Amino acid sequence: QVQLVESGGGLVQAGGSLRLSCAASGSILSMNVMGWYRQAPGKQRELVASISYGGNTNYADSVKGRFTISRNNAKDAVYLQMNSLKPEDTAVYYCNLKTLVHKTDYWGSGTQVTVSS
Asked: What is the torsion angle, in degrees rounded to the nearest 10, for the CA atoms of residue 24, residue 26, residue 27 and residue 32?
């Protein structure tokens, strides 16, 4: 099985930055996509950014130009650098790993990001 643990969330002022980290452990296949989702109160969980094993990235329109996703395959880790944070970025952020052979999703428990105005 696969376990995901997030870290790096916290309280930050609007315009500030945070860097989220996610470490994966367990029986991990290299053919996977890792990403970050977020869920604000009263809203559906949404994809923020994703990155394939080969480094192909995808971003939500709302974060393009502000957030950068990266991964370290040797460490089975994924990161989300968040700059120019806005109050609307406030949410619980979840790390996700999707295997591409069996299309199985694994989720972290989430880390809170709060941006004050």
From this structure: -10
Largest interatomic CA distance in the chain:
43
Contact 96, 111 (CB under 8 A): no
DSSP-derived 3-state class of residue 36:
strand
Per-residue tokens: 44: 């559906």
Please write the tens of the pLDDT for every residue from 24-63.
999 888 899 999 999 999 999 999 999 999 999 999 999 9
Per-residue pLDDT, 13: 98
Q: 1-14 pLDDT, tens per residue?
A: 899 999 999 999 99
CA-CA distance, 20 to 108, in Å (whole number)? 12
The encoded tokens of residue 34 equal 């890792």
Q: How many CA atoms lie within 13 A of 84 on its CB side?
A: 7
> CA–CA separation, 101 vs 42, rounded Å?
33
| Residue 25: closest CA among 70, 69, 75 | 75
